[in-house]
Amino acid sequence: MNHAMPVPNAATPPTRDSSIGGLLLESGKITPENAERVLRMQRELGIRFGEAAQRLGLITEADIQQVLARQFDYPYLQANEGKFSAELVAAYQPFSPQVETLRAIRSQLMLRWFATGRKSLAVISINPDDGAALFVANLAIVFSQLGEQTLLVDANLRAPRQHELFDLKGRQGLSDMLAGRAELDAIAKIDSFVDLSVLSAGTLPPNPQELLNRPAFGALNGRLESRYDAVLYDMPALALGSDGLAIAARAGGALLIARKNKTLLADLNTVSRQLSSTGVKVVGSVLVDF
């Protein structure tokens, strides 16, 4: 029986080859010439394509695991791949105990908050060195790995970090949008993670608290919620000012971050009461240890 290969046209776009061999070729792990060698060994020995490529020394087990993850729409990166910070463990070490914990937190947030129809969540810490920026960056990655259209917003207009973690230096961002100098195209799509986008802080303003209290921020949050399944806000530590309270009020919910042997329980209780008094639901708290 003859099988004709359909010719792509305007009405029939070419489909993406999601086979192991196709993904290895697309990612540059093997060349077309080497692929022919692999296919010959595959036919001769009756083994899988990936196993044949490994036997020929063309790829490693790590390459196979990464391609399998792409087959199942669970993208991650190998060490030194991309320009992102190595601190993004959800990107580079997706099967580590730390990331397993992140996935457990994601599941709780999905059940307690996002499943109720809410789309925005503010992530708040007490002190600048409590690790909130790094935590929310990794949380955003695991949300995107679930297939949720995820937007990470760096609303820390005092000491932002997300542009460094995701290599987005020199871009306009949230402050520029709130000042009317940028539009939604300031949002960066992170191609390595199909469902992840990041809005960096942008130009550091002299009046961050006033800027975040403007009605423009509420309107922007509404626009973002209409485009994304989950909008996660990285905010300045409350020790630096009350910016975070304004953001949390717009989001409607907050996740508190505490650092082991650093954050005082009394401070957490005070912040929790402050948030609740403004109508913000405290979804939960996370103790980080580093």
Description:
The chain has 290 residues and is an alpha/beta fold. The chain contains 13 helices and seven strands. The chain has helices at residues 20-26, 32-45, 49-55, 61-71, 89-92, 97-112, 132-145, 162-165, 174-178, 208-212, 215-227, 243-251, 265-277, and strands at residues 120-125, 150-154, 188-189, 196-199, 230-234, 253-259, 281-288. Strands 3-4-2-5-1-6-7 form a seven-stranded mixed β-sheet, with helices on both faces. Strand 3 (188-189) and strand 4 form a beta hairpin. Helix 2 (32-45) packs across helix 3 (49-55) and helix 6 crosses helix 7 (132-145). Residues 1-17 have low confidence and may be disordered.
Summarize the helices and strands and which ones pair or pack:
Layout: H1 20-26, H2 32-45, H3 49-55, H4 61-71, H5 89-92, H6 97-112, E1 120-125, H7 132-145, E2 150-154, H8 162-165, H9 174-178, E3 188-189, E4 196-199, H10 208-212, H11 215-227, E5 230-234, H12 243-251, E6 253-259, H13 265-277, E7 281-288
Parallel strand pairs: 1-5, 1-6, 2-4, 2-5, 6-7
Antiparallel strand pairs: 3-4
Helix pairs in contact: 2-3, 6-7
